[in-house]
Write a structure and sequence with these properties.
The protein is mainly alpha-helical. The chain contains nine helices and no strands.
Length: 175
């Protein structure tokens, strides 16, 4: 397990940091990935470092999907293993952000947002970034919730397409 950690922790940290744009959350997700790996090590059937890497990234993808689906990190694996959460310091957060090129990602997100039609951009910013309810956004925009839902949906689809291209080019240059 130590070798798997040494060989993959930095790449996992980069993977999570780029997707969450939150260095503390990325650190927590890496910790949880390894906690889950330790808890389920009996199910690992691989023989090589590459098998271990695929297994770890499979766990990581599942945790990332759970995070996006539920909106928070599951702590069950860490609790089962009696791991205490570790708070990262400012210097550590800065290193994670540099490793994952988060400043570049934030700039890319802002550019992508700027390329949206104003009504999509405003709806996405209010609903997703500011986490306002659809009802509040509709009231502020002077329209119906259905219209806001459609604008957010369309805006996110356009953002996703744009950011997938950017993420791919960033990952090609680093991983």
């Amino acid at each position: 397990m130590t070798r798997l950690y040494d060989e993959n922790a930095e790449d996992l940290l980069r993977y999570f940091a780029r997707r969450t744009v939150d260095s503390q959350l990325a650190f927590d997700l890496v910790s949880e990935t390894f906690a889950e790996a330790i808890a389920s090590r009996g199910s690992f059937k691989g023989n090589s470092s590459e098998d271990g890497r695929r297994w770890l990234f499979g766990i990581a993808r599942n945790l990332m999907n759970n995070y996006f689906r539920r909106g928070h990190v599951e702590q069950r694996a860490m609790q089962r293993l009696r791991f205490e959460p570790v708070e990262i310091g400012k210097d550590d957060a800065e290193q994670i952000e540099e490793l994952a090129q988060m400043a570049e990602m934030r700039a890319a997100v802002e550019r992508a947002l700027g390329s949206l039609k104003p009504e999509y951009r405003d709806a996405v910013r209010a609903r997703i970034l500011q986490q306002k309810s659809y009802a509040d956004v509709a009231r502020e925009m002077g329209t119906s919730e259905d219209v806001v839902r459609a604008r957010v949906s369309r805006g996110l689809k356009k953002l996703k397409k744009e950011l997938e291209q950017i993420r791919g080019s960033m990952e090609d240059s680093n991983v």
